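Lab notebook, design round three. We kept the backbone fixed and only want residue identities now. Task for the bench partner: fill in a sequence for the structure below.
Input structure tokens:
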């Protein structure tokens, strides 16, 4: 593992990385820079962190650079770091899942190996978060992905190496957004439906939370086809038809789309006639 890790940006992700690297041990020097005066003052007092003046200074000293700035700031800050001199095979990674390794091209042009180490973790602004058990998507050159894997293990996570072309990374980020953000949308919609059935706002959230936590627990232990329950698992077309009739049309569109995907999970367990009936129902026939 690289001995000197430079963190550029100490927002939610950067702060979590700095905290993990210093608290988990391993004898690594952590260098850092942030635009924020308040954060700079805070981390100056944190044992194990050496705060430097400017990202260029971090780039000069670090064996591995980790950019934890906003997507919009990546190219500008990478350009500043590139002025610090040749990379000589050192590694630079950023944590933005939607941005390709090439956003760090100012660094690759001066000899840095570049890549992405994106935490698959929902982090609320200013929330203290650890990376224990978290997966990270790794993109970039072979050397960058190897170094990223070592860094992720040092943070307590697990690296998942992925194909590096732009389409693959867009699909990866879409999958992450579909699961994380889509789940928030489904939770909000289910809460609304519970309220429309007469539940108080607090009661609706309790109902949705109870079901969500049990379902995610099942998914953490079981394959999706085994974790699936409910009328579609049992092939109950009449019950699903009653659901569609009760929901507002725009919500029913989402219900149909998700149910079509779920139908593929049970296609080998139900009789062909039930599958055909469900497919026709979901297609609006």
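Proposed sequence:
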């Amino acid at each position: 593992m690289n001995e000197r890790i430079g963190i550029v940006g100490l927002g939610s992700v950067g702060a979590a990385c700095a905290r993990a690297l210093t608290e988990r041990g391993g004898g690594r020097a952590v260098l850092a820079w942030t635009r924020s005066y308040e954060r700079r003052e805070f981390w100056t007092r944190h044992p194990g962190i050496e705060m430097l003046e400017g990202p260029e200074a971090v780039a000069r000293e670090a064996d591995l650079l980790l950019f934890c700035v906003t997507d919009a700031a990546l190219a500008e800050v990478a350009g500043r770091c590139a002025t610090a001199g040749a990379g000589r095979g050192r590694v630079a990674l950023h944590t933005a899942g939607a941005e390709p390794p090439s956003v760090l091209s100012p660094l690759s042009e001066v000899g840095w190996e570049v890549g992405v180490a994106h935490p698959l973790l929902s982090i609320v602004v200013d929330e203290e978060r650890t990376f224990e058990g978290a997966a990270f998507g790794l993109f970039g050159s072979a050397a960058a992905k190897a170094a990223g894997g070592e860094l992720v293990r040092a943070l307590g996570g697990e690296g998942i190496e992925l194909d590096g072309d732009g389409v693959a990374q867009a699909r990866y980020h879409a999958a992450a957004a579909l699961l994380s953000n889509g789940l928030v949308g489904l939770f909000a919609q289910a809460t609304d439906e519970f309220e429309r059935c007469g539940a108080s706002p607090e009661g609706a959230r309790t109902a949705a939370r109870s079901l969500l936590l049990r379902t995610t627990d099942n998914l953490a232990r079981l394959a999706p086809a085994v974790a699936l329950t409910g009328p579609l698992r049992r092939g109950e077309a009449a019950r699903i038809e009653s659901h569609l009739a009760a929901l507002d049309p725009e919500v029913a569109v989402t219900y149909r789309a998700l149910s079509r995907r779920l139908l593929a999970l049970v296609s080998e367990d139900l009789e062909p006639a039930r599958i055909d009936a469900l497919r026709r129902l979901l297609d609006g026939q």
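Keep this in mind before ordering anything: The beta strands are 4-8, 29-33, 49-51, 64-67, 91-94, 113-119, 135-140, 158-161.
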